[in-house]
Amino acid sequence: xxxxxxxxxxxxxxxxxxxxxxxxxxxxxxxxxxxxxxxxxxxxxxxxxxxxxxxxxxxxxxxxxxxxxxxxxxxxxxxxxxx
Length: 83
Fold this sequence. Notes:
Residues 1-25, 63-83 are annotated as: Disordered. The protein is mainly α.
């Protein structure tokens, strides 16, 4: 019955299952596998901390600007823009 529904040749006379009754199964809404690019951070989180420290894996997500700021030399005391 499933093979008949997939090929479009329905051998049974069930109402609602034949293409003549207006019901056509749509496979567009079936789950499509994603490529995994978005879940790499989740997969990295499954490693133990000692392994991350040993292999220099980033533990905290940080923007590029914040990473650059860590290595900039400290300027004097913070001044206001309006002084």
